[in-house]
Amino acid sequence: MRATAIAHPNVALIKYWGKRDVQSNFPAVGSLSLTLSGLNTRTAVSFEAARSTDEVLINGQSDQRAGIRITRCLDILRDLAGVDSHALVESTNDFPTGAGLASSASGYAALVKAAAAALGLDIAQSKLDEIARIGSGSAPRSLHSGIVLLDIASGGVDEMTCRTVCEPDAWPLAIEVAITSRAAKDVGSTGGMELSKKASPYYQAWVDTHPADLAAGLTAVEKRDFEGLAEVSEQSCLKMHAMAMSSQPPLLYWSAATVDCMHRIRELRRQGLPVFFTIDAGPQVKAVCLPEAAPQVKAALSELPGVLDVLDSRLGQGAWVE
Ligand code: PMV
What we know:
With 322 residues, the chain is α+β, with helices and mostly antiparallel strands. α1 runs antiparallel to α3 (125-135) and α2 packs across α3 (125-135). The protein is 37% helix and 25% strand. It has helices at 64-81, 103-118, 125-135, 189-199, 203-222, 226-245, 256-270, 294-302, and strands at 2-7, 10-14, 19-21, 26-27, 31-35, 41-48, 55-58, 61-62, 86-93, 147-152, 160-166, 174-179, 275-278, 285-289, 309-314, 320-321. It folds into two domains: 2-167, 2-Layer Sandwich (Ribosomal Protein S5, domain 2), CATH 3.30.230.10; 174-314, 2-Layer Sandwich (Alpha-Beta Plaits), CATH 3.30.70.890. A hairpin with a 6-residue loop joins β13 and β14.
Protein backbone atom coordinates (compact mmCIF):
# COMPACT_ATOMS: atom_id res chain seq x y z
CA MET A 1 0.00 0.00 0.00
CA ARG A 2 2.72 2.43 -1.03
CA ALA A 3 3.05 4.57 -4.16
CA THR A 4 4.97 7.64 -5.31
CA ALA A 5 3.74 10.36 -7.65
CA ILE A 6 5.36 13.39 -9.22
CA ALA A 7 3.56 16.64 -10.00
CA HIS A 8 4.60 19.98 -11.39
CA PRO A 9 3.37 23.26 -9.93
CA ASN A 10 1.27 25.46 -12.17
CA VAL A 11 0.83 29.18 -12.62
CA ALA A 12 -2.51 30.79 -13.37
CA LEU A 13 -2.77 33.37 -16.13
CA ILE A 14 -6.39 34.09 -15.30
CA LYS A 15 -6.19 33.92 -11.53
CA TYR A 16 -8.23 32.19 -8.89
CA TRP A 17 -8.58 34.36 -5.78
CA GLY A 18 -11.51 33.96 -3.40
CA LYS A 19 -13.48 31.02 -2.07
CA ARG A 20 -17.21 30.62 -2.34
CA ASP A 21 -16.97 28.59 0.83
CA VAL A 22 -13.90 28.04 2.99
CA GLN A 23 -15.13 24.79 4.50
CA SER A 24 -15.57 23.01 1.16
CA ASN A 25 -12.72 25.07 -0.37
CA PHE A 26 -14.85 25.73 -3.46
CA PRO A 27 -13.41 28.57 -5.59
CA ALA A 28 -15.44 31.73 -6.24
CA VAL A 29 -14.04 31.96 -9.79
CA GLY A 30 -12.57 29.67 -12.45
CA SER A 31 -8.97 29.88 -13.69
CA LEU A 32 -6.68 29.26 -16.64
CA SER A 33 -3.18 27.97 -15.92
CA LEU A 34 0.09 26.63 -17.24
CA THR A 35 1.51 23.39 -15.82
CA LEU A 36 5.25 24.00 -15.32
CA SER A 37 7.82 21.38 -16.26
CA GLY A 38 11.26 21.55 -14.65
CA LEU A 39 9.92 22.13 -11.11
CA ASN A 40 8.92 18.95 -9.30
CA THR A 41 7.12 17.76 -6.19
CA ARG A 42 7.70 14.09 -5.43
CA THR A 43 5.34 12.54 -2.88
CA ALA A 44 5.36 9.02 -1.45
CA VAL A 45 2.31 7.78 0.44
CA SER A 46 2.28 4.56 2.43
CA PHE A 47 -0.73 3.29 4.34
CA GLU A 48 0.46 1.33 7.36
CA ALA A 49 -1.83 -0.65 9.69
CA ALA A 50 0.37 0.08 12.74
CA ARG A 51 -0.01 3.88 12.51
CA SER A 52 -2.42 5.75 14.79
CA THR A 53 -2.39 9.07 12.85
CA ASP A 54 -1.36 10.38 9.47
CA GLU A 55 2.15 11.81 9.49
CA VAL A 56 3.29 14.43 7.00
CA LEU A 57 6.90 15.27 6.23
CA ILE A 58 7.52 18.14 3.80
CA ASN A 59 11.16 18.41 2.76
CA GLY A 60 11.94 16.17 5.74
CA GLN A 61 10.15 18.39 8.31
CA SER A 62 6.97 17.41 10.11
CA ASP A 63 4.12 19.76 9.05
CA GLN A 64 1.05 19.52 11.27
CA ARG A 65 -0.78 22.48 9.75
CA ALA A 66 -0.71 20.93 6.27
CA GLY A 67 -1.55 17.62 7.95
CA ILE A 68 -5.16 18.63 8.70
CA ARG A 69 -6.09 19.24 5.06
CA ILE A 70 -4.06 16.29 3.89
CA THR A 71 -6.01 14.06 6.26
CA ARG A 72 -9.29 15.42 4.80
CA CYS A 73 -8.19 14.34 1.32
CA LEU A 74 -6.89 10.99 2.56
CA ASP A 75 -10.15 10.32 4.46
CA ILE A 76 -12.17 10.59 1.23
CA LEU A 77 -9.81 8.21 -0.55
CA ARG A 78 -9.78 5.80 2.42
CA ASP A 79 -13.61 5.78 2.40
CA LEU A 80 -13.70 5.03 -1.31
CA ALA A 81 -11.23 2.15 -0.83
CA GLY A 82 -12.82 0.87 2.39
CA VAL A 83 -9.46 1.13 4.16
CA ASP A 84 -8.88 2.68 7.59
CA SER A 85 -5.07 2.60 7.94
CA HIS A 86 -3.28 5.88 8.50
CA ALA A 87 -0.52 7.02 6.19
CA LEU A 88 3.00 8.33 6.12
CA VAL A 89 3.24 11.12 3.52
CA GLU A 90 6.74 12.17 2.49
CA SER A 91 6.91 15.07 0.06
CA THR A 92 9.89 16.92 -1.35
CA ASN A 93 10.08 19.94 -3.63
CA ASP A 94 13.07 20.80 -5.80
CA PHE A 95 12.06 24.51 -5.70
CA PRO A 96 11.27 27.01 -2.84
CA THR A 97 8.26 25.87 -0.75
CA GLY A 98 5.38 28.17 0.26
CA ALA A 99 6.91 31.16 -1.50
CA GLY A 100 4.43 31.82 -4.29
CA LEU A 101 5.57 28.98 -6.52
CA ALA A 102 2.41 26.89 -6.12
CA SER A 103 3.98 24.17 -4.00
CA SER A 104 0.50 23.53 -2.57
CA ALA A 105 -0.88 22.83 -6.07
CA SER A 106 1.83 20.32 -6.96
CA GLY A 107 1.76 18.98 -3.39
CA TYR A 108 -1.93 18.08 -3.37
CA ALA A 109 -1.86 16.84 -6.97
CA ALA A 110 1.00 14.45 -6.16
CA LEU A 111 -0.67 13.48 -2.86
CA VAL A 112 -4.02 12.40 -4.31
CA LYS A 113 -2.38 10.69 -7.28
CA ALA A 114 0.01 8.70 -5.03
CA ALA A 115 -2.61 7.90 -2.38
CA ALA A 116 -5.16 6.66 -4.95
CA ALA A 117 -2.46 4.43 -6.48
CA ALA A 118 -1.33 3.15 -3.07
CA LEU A 119 -4.94 2.21 -2.29
CA GLY A 120 -5.36 0.53 -5.69
CA LEU A 121 -8.31 2.81 -6.51
CA ASP A 122 -9.57 3.03 -10.07
CA ILE A 123 -11.01 6.50 -9.76
CA ALA A 124 -12.56 8.85 -12.34
CA GLN A 125 -10.37 11.85 -13.19
CA SER A 126 -13.17 14.27 -12.24
CA LYS A 127 -13.37 12.71 -8.77
CA LEU A 128 -9.60 12.99 -8.31
CA ASP A 129 -9.81 16.66 -9.40
CA GLU A 130 -12.47 17.26 -6.77
CA ILE A 131 -10.46 15.62 -3.97
CA ALA A 132 -7.34 17.61 -4.93
CA ARG A 133 -9.45 20.81 -4.87
CA ILE A 134 -10.40 20.17 -1.26
CA GLY A 135 -6.67 20.38 -0.48
CA SER A 136 -5.92 23.43 -2.63
CA GLY A 137 -8.08 25.28 -5.15
CA SER A 138 -5.27 25.35 -7.68
CA ALA A 139 -4.27 21.66 -7.24
CA PRO A 140 -6.64 20.04 -9.79
CA ARG A 141 -4.85 22.04 -12.49
CA SER A 142 -1.55 20.25 -11.70
CA LEU A 143 -3.26 16.93 -12.47
CA HIS A 144 -3.53 18.05 -16.12
CA SER A 145 -1.00 18.85 -18.86
CA GLY A 146 -0.20 22.05 -20.71
CA ILE A 147 -2.70 24.90 -20.59
CA VAL A 148 -5.52 24.01 -18.23
CA LEU A 149 -9.01 25.41 -17.67
CA LEU A 150 -10.70 25.02 -14.29
CA ASP A 151 -14.28 26.06 -14.87
CA ILE A 152 -17.02 26.40 -12.28
CA ALA A 153 -20.71 25.88 -13.03
CA SER A 154 -22.80 29.03 -13.34
CA GLY A 155 -25.80 29.66 -11.09
CA GLY A 156 -24.04 29.10 -7.78
CA VAL A 157 -23.89 25.30 -8.08
CA ASP A 158 -20.71 23.86 -6.48
CA GLU A 159 -19.58 21.90 -9.53
CA MET A 160 -16.35 22.26 -11.42
CA THR A 161 -14.58 20.78 -14.41
CA CYS A 162 -10.85 20.76 -15.04
CA ARG A 163 -9.27 19.91 -18.39
CA THR A 164 -6.37 20.56 -20.75
CA VAL A 165 -7.30 23.11 -23.42
CA CYS A 166 -3.89 23.06 -25.15
CA GLU A 167 -1.31 20.26 -24.95
CA PRO A 168 2.34 21.26 -24.27
CA ASP A 169 3.51 20.63 -27.84
CA ALA A 170 0.50 22.36 -29.44
CA TRP A 171 1.75 25.80 -28.29
CA PRO A 172 5.18 25.37 -26.69
CA LEU A 173 5.37 28.36 -24.36
CA ALA A 174 8.41 28.95 -22.13
CA ILE A 175 8.30 30.30 -18.59
CA GLU A 176 11.25 31.99 -16.90
CA VAL A 177 10.75 32.13 -13.14
CA ALA A 178 12.59 34.99 -11.41
CA ILE A 179 13.23 34.14 -7.76
CA THR A 180 13.44 37.31 -5.68
CA SER A 181 13.15 35.66 -2.25
CA ARG A 182 13.37 32.12 -0.90
CA ALA A 183 11.49 32.91 2.32
CA ALA A 184 8.04 31.42 2.94
CA LYS A 185 5.28 34.04 2.72
CA ASP A 186 3.68 35.56 5.86
CA VAL A 187 0.07 35.33 4.72
CA GLY A 188 -0.90 32.18 2.85
CA SER A 189 -3.41 32.16 0.03
CA THR A 190 -6.38 30.96 2.13
CA GLY A 191 -5.90 33.76 4.70
CA GLY A 192 -5.29 36.27 1.92
CA MET A 193 -8.42 35.26 0.01
CA GLU A 194 -10.62 35.48 3.08
CA LEU A 195 -9.22 38.89 3.91
CA SER A 196 -9.90 40.14 0.38
CA LYS A 197 -13.44 38.76 0.46
CA LYS A 198 -14.16 40.39 3.80
CA ALA A 199 -12.29 43.64 3.44
CA SER A 200 -11.53 44.67 -0.13
CA PRO A 201 -14.03 47.05 -1.76
CA TYR A 202 -13.01 45.52 -5.08
CA TYR A 203 -13.83 41.90 -4.28
CA GLN A 204 -17.33 41.83 -5.78
CA ALA A 205 -16.10 43.64 -8.91
CA TRP A 206 -13.40 40.96 -9.24
CA VAL A 207 -15.95 38.14 -9.05
CA ASP A 208 -18.34 39.91 -11.43
CA THR A 209 -15.76 40.72 -14.10
CA HIS A 210 -13.89 37.42 -13.89
CA PRO A 211 -15.97 35.34 -16.37
CA ALA A 212 -15.18 37.83 -19.16
CA ASP A 213 -11.43 37.60 -18.39
CA LEU A 214 -11.60 33.80 -18.41
CA ALA A 215 -13.43 33.81 -21.75
CA ALA A 216 -10.88 36.25 -23.24
CA GLY A 217 -7.98 34.11 -21.99
CA LEU A 218 -9.50 30.99 -23.45
CA THR A 219 -10.13 32.64 -26.83
CA ALA A 220 -6.52 33.89 -26.93
CA VAL A 221 -5.28 30.33 -26.27
CA GLU A 222 -7.57 28.86 -28.91
CA LYS A 223 -6.28 31.38 -31.47
CA ARG A 224 -2.66 31.09 -30.23
CA ASP A 225 -2.89 34.88 -29.86
CA PHE A 226 0.15 35.70 -27.69
CA GLU A 227 -0.52 39.46 -27.58
CA GLY A 228 -4.13 38.89 -26.54
CA LEU A 229 -3.08 36.40 -23.87
CA ALA A 230 -0.42 38.83 -22.60
CA GLU A 231 -2.93 41.63 -22.18
CA VAL A 232 -5.64 39.71 -20.37
CA SER A 233 -3.15 37.77 -18.19
CA GLU A 234 -1.32 40.85 -16.94
CA GLN A 235 -4.65 42.50 -16.24
CA SER A 236 -5.97 39.49 -14.29
CA CYS A 237 -2.75 39.40 -12.26
CA LEU A 238 -2.86 43.12 -11.47
CA LYS A 239 -6.57 42.94 -10.59
CA MET A 240 -5.85 40.15 -8.11
CA HIS A 241 -3.00 42.08 -6.50
CA ALA A 242 -5.03 45.33 -6.44
CA MET A 243 -7.64 43.42 -4.47
CA ALA A 244 -5.03 42.04 -2.08
CA MET A 245 -3.50 45.51 -1.60
CA SER A 246 -6.90 47.11 -1.01
CA SER A 247 -7.75 44.67 1.83
CA GLN A 248 -7.57 45.85 5.43
CA PRO A 249 -4.91 45.15 6.67
CA PRO A 250 -3.40 45.39 3.19
CA LEU A 251 -1.56 42.49 1.62
CA LEU A 252 1.48 43.40 -0.41
CA TYR A 253 3.14 40.30 -1.83
CA TRP A 254 5.69 42.16 -3.97
CA SER A 255 9.27 43.12 -3.20
CA ALA A 256 11.16 45.93 -4.91
CA ALA A 257 12.69 43.33 -7.22
CA THR A 258 9.21 42.07 -8.16
CA VAL A 259 8.34 45.55 -9.44
CA ASP A 260 11.69 45.87 -11.24
CA CYS A 261 10.99 42.59 -13.05
CA MET A 262 7.53 43.79 -14.10
CA HIS A 263 8.97 46.99 -15.59
CA ARG A 264 11.75 45.11 -17.35
CA ILE A 265 9.30 42.62 -18.89
CA ARG A 266 7.01 45.40 -20.13
CA GLU A 267 10.02 47.19 -21.63
CA LEU A 268 11.08 43.99 -23.44
CA ARG A 269 7.55 43.62 -24.82
CA ARG A 270 7.55 47.23 -26.03
CA GLN A 271 10.81 46.41 -27.83
CA GLY A 272 8.98 43.61 -29.65
CA LEU A 273 9.85 40.55 -27.54
CA PRO A 274 6.91 38.17 -26.97
CA VAL A 275 6.85 38.10 -23.16
CA PHE A 276 4.46 38.99 -20.32
CA PHE A 277 4.46 38.62 -16.53
CA THR A 278 2.32 36.97 -13.94
CA ILE A 279 2.75 36.88 -10.14
CA ASP A 280 1.03 34.75 -7.52
CA ALA A 281 0.77 35.23 -3.75
CA GLY A 282 4.49 35.85 -3.31
CA PRO A 283 7.35 37.96 -4.67
CA GLN A 284 8.46 35.68 -7.55
CA VAL A 285 7.79 36.78 -11.12
CA LYS A 286 6.94 34.35 -13.90
CA ALA A 287 7.79 35.63 -17.36
CA VAL A 288 5.75 33.75 -19.97
CA CYS A 289 7.29 33.92 -23.43
CA LEU A 290 7.61 32.24 -26.80
CA PRO A 291 10.56 29.79 -26.64
CA GLU A 292 12.78 31.79 -29.00
CA ALA A 293 12.62 34.76 -26.59
CA ALA A 294 13.50 32.72 -23.47
CA PRO A 295 17.32 33.23 -23.48
CA GLN A 296 16.97 37.01 -23.85
CA VAL A 297 14.26 37.20 -21.17
CA LYS A 298 16.38 35.12 -18.79
CA ALA A 299 19.45 37.30 -19.38
CA ALA A 300 17.47 40.52 -18.84
CA LEU A 301 15.92 39.31 -15.57
CA SER A 302 19.19 37.81 -14.25
CA GLU A 303 20.82 41.23 -14.56
CA LEU A 304 18.41 42.89 -12.11
CA PRO A 305 20.00 43.42 -8.66
CA GLY A 306 17.29 41.74 -6.52
CA VAL A 307 16.91 38.64 -8.70
CA LEU A 308 18.55 35.66 -6.94
CA ASP A 309 18.01 33.08 -9.65
CA VAL A 310 16.01 32.47 -12.83
CA LEU A 311 14.55 28.98 -13.34
CA ASP A 312 13.70 27.66 -16.81
CA SER A 313 10.38 26.01 -17.37
CA ARG A 314 8.19 24.85 -20.26
CA LEU A 315 4.69 23.46 -20.37
CA GLY A 316 4.65 20.13 -18.56
CA GLN A 317 2.62 16.98 -18.02
CA GLY A 318 -0.10 16.42 -15.46
CA ALA A 319 0.83 14.46 -12.31
CA TRP A 320 1.86 10.84 -12.80
CA VAL A 321 2.61 7.78 -10.70
CA GLU A 322 6.29 6.86 -10.70
O1 PMV B 1 -4.73 26.98 -4.42
P1 PMV B 1 -4.14 27.98 -3.52
O2 PMV B 1 -4.84 28.06 -2.21
O3 PMV B 1 -2.65 27.79 -3.36
O4 PMV B 1 -4.34 29.44 -4.19
C1 PMV B 1 -3.74 29.84 -5.39
C2 PMV B 1 -3.84 31.30 -5.56
C3 PMV B 1 -2.98 31.93 -6.63
O5 PMV B 1 -1.81 31.16 -6.84
C4 PMV B 1 -2.55 33.31 -6.19
C5 PMV B 1 -3.74 32.11 -7.94
C6 PMV B 1 -3.93 30.86 -8.76
O6 PMV B 1 -4.94 30.81 -9.49
O7 PMV B 1 -3.08 29.96 -8.73
